[in-house]
Amino acid sequence: MIREFNNTILKEASKLDYIVKADAPNDINSVLQQTQLVIWNGESDNTIWQDSAVNYAFRALHDRLHQVTGLGFNAESEIELGRIQASQYDGLMADLVYCEVSMQAQYYLTHSKFVENQISFTHNYLKELGYNI
User: Fold this and answer.
1) Hey, which of 46, 74, 90, 101 has its CA 20 to 30 A from 5?
2) pTM for this one?
């Protein structure tokens, strides 16, 4: 199933102009000024997508939504952006995207730190929703 989701992410991101680098903008004003998205290459090995290239593509889609909406990088804006991004999908894919963005931002608000194991975090969230993963 994850392969199907990965293919969807890669296909959608193939329409965007982005590159992956170690040094990428980390503020909304810089992202808004980009004509070619620069995607950060860090922390991409242990994600629910199980493929760093897919994680970069997901980030590109996410950052493009930052450009479209003008929403910033604070946790509250990320939660809203996650809602918007998830609304583009149905079922498990929508819940997966919502968890990847909104629920991880909510975790940060609650615990003042980022999720350490994204795969476990996402699996637990989806199980709570009733998915048999």
Assistant:
1) 74
2) 0.91
